[in-house]
Specification:
- The protein has a single domain, classed as HIT family, subunit A (2-Layer Sandwich).
- Strand 1 and strand 2 form a beta hairpin.
- The radius of gyration is 15 Å and the shape is globular.
- The chain is built from three helices and five strands, in the order αβββαβαβ.
- It is an alpha+beta fold.
- The structure holds guanosine-5'-monophosphate (5GP) and zinc ion.
């Protein structure tokens, strides 16, 4: 995925503000933060989205994400983990990433324009 911006960040062809890195995973600050703590956590291997990721990658990324939360000091105060998938999910960058958001009480409101109770 030569043109993928997150693959370029992995290869250090594009700069990023790195929080934590190991052989398989990378965590860096979102360029346009939506909360006082807003980190993007990615596997270095390219997957288009969560829909394509392997169970072994998910197994590996779990302790990595938990460690990122500790490094940022939000492991006790709490945080939100989000991955957007595809068009309706609002995914803009087509390289699997988890948003780790925290550092303040987060809002939880209507997420869709259509009636959220339509399928009840
Ligand atoms: P998505 O909408 O795909 O779930 O989220 C993509 C996220 O990547 C957005 O929050 C956006 O601010 C962030 N982003 C896009 N380009 C860059 C970049 O070049 N560097 C960094 N650090 N974040 C980026
Ligand atoms: Zn990529």
């Amino acid at each position: 995925m030569a043109e993928c911006i997150f693959c370029k960040i992995v290869r250090k062809e594009l700069p990023s503000n790195i929080v934590l890195e190991n052989e398989q995973f990378l965590a860096f600050h979102d360029i346009n933060p939506k909360a006082p703590v807003h980190i993007l956590i990615i596997p270095k291997e390219h997957f288009d989205s969560f829909q394509e990721v392997t169970p072994s990658t998910m197994e590996g990324i779990t302790p990595f994400i938990q460690e990122v939360a500790k490094v940022l000091g939000v492991d006790s105060s709490g945080y939100r983990l989000i991955t957007n998938i595809g068009e309706n999910g609002g995914q803009e960058v087509k390289h699997l990433h988890f948003h780790l958001l925290g550092g303040a009480k987060l809002k939880w409101e209507h997420l869709a324009d259509s009636n959220p109770k339509a399928n009840l």
